[in-house]
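Q: Entry one of two.
A:
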Amino acid sequence: MFTGIITGLGRVTAHEPIQGTAYDPKGGGQRITVACGDWDLSDVAIGDSIAHSGCCLTIVEKGPGTLKSDVSTHSLSIVTGLSVGSLVNLEKSMTLADKLGGHLVTGHVDTSGVVLQWKNIAESWFLEVEVTNTLGRFIAKKGSITINGVSLTVNEVADASDKTRFQINVIPHTYQVTNFSELREGDRVNVEIDTIARYVERMTQYAR
């Protein structure tokens, strides 16, 4: 589990094809290398979970200032922002002693959304993202959502026939310490809906 509070940034520097494994028997996945700069890796061990722009990945190799993880073909079909050269948001998995500064984040990306608007307004940034309306019922005004691994609050939601748009205010601190500094209109971003909303939807299916 994660909190959606980004603690580091890394840059994807390489992809290597990986052979079939238990979770990706047909192969086609990629082992990605991320250069982590001055992010503290002293407490990161092989087998640890690290969120990469919202996608939970297991560390399989560690070097000076670098981490390697295997990404399955399934994850690659959903997750965006892991190509060579991409700046990724990094967060270590939380412990029971950590403060929950954001909200409960699983690192299981639900979909990639499209950035419709991304503009500076006074000291903050206005972000509007569009997703399919199959996820729209999980997105609520003043509720929590995760974009590229960042815990954010939804300001407005609008449903159309097949799409849902939602708007977010990004404060200067978040802009400075995440990969939002390289975001552009038209980009795709990783979206994870709120965990509580996910379970509420499942339970209500049996109450109808």
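Q: Entry two of two.
A:
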Amino acid sequence: MRHRFWLIRHALVHPDSMAYLYGTDDVPVCPDTMAADTARYAVLAARLPRPARLVCSPLRRTQDTAAALMRAGYPKQPALLDPAFVEQDFGALQGQPIADFHARGQDERHPFWPIHAAETPPEGESFAHMVARVGAGLDALLTTAPGRDTIIISHGGAIRAACAHALGLTPHQALCLQIDNISLTRLEHNEHGWRVLSVNEHSVAVASVAAKQQQGAL
């Protein structure tokens, strides 16, 4: 039995929120960027399977991204809100300026993440804990609807954690994966186990052509 997961990172957040480590804070998306990316949402909406189960994290930036995909043509449906796919909980570190983490030495942070892969923030979770959480969430979805497609609109850290679960990556290795906003990562589970079909797919070039066609430029 084959089950495919279509993981989408949420839309870019508002610039005011990007100045600090927001993690599980419920920050808003950037409306200007979302409006400018209309063609990208249309291409992504056309790329996604239908029918498919839709899952979002409880944070509104994932649900706003789902709404944008439906405005762009994906069939409207309610989303299952699953806390297993929320961003890493940075605990007491949330709300601190991002500049503070840039100032950390190489031994104090990951090259591509605000904190070290093994660090457990006070009142928060380590990335290893996050991999276990996301992995359990994926396995639970497999048991509730085997053999179908599931779209998960989630967060950069959670999608990296999903890839780590599928491939058995270390937390450090998983954090080296690039996961951009409104990018697509595809996983599959079948009788042989997990495999990764793609990571960080972009529809930028296709969307650019589509936008020009709409404007009569081509």
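A: Comment on entry two: The domain at 3-214 is CATH 3.40.50.1240 (Rossmann fold). The chain has eight helices and six strands.
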